[in-house]
Here is the input.
Amino acid sequence: EVHLVESGGGSVQTGGSLRLSCAVSGYSYWRSCMAWFRQAPGKEREGIAAITPIGGVAYYDDSVEGRFTISQDNSKISVYLQMNSLKPEDTGMYYCAAASGGGCPPFVALNYKYWGQGTQVSVSS
Here is the structure.
């Protein structure tokens, strides 16, 4: 069984930075697109970044392009999200997700098979 465990959330002020981590276990051979989603109170879960297992091609939602960077460590089977220039609208629960294949599907929650429990990010003005 695949498990995803996020860490690194916290509270920061506007303009601050955080680095989220997602540790993956339960896979004997990891070759899946990994993504980060977030969900603000009262809003739908939205995809913000994804990375392919081969080549590390990254995709970003416009809302985080240029401020967030997704990366991976295939030897440790981990994925990271470096978040800079944080804004209050970045506040929410952040989830790590894995697709069932190596290609990164569109940022729709139903396209991703495995999910972590989430880590909270709060940005104050």
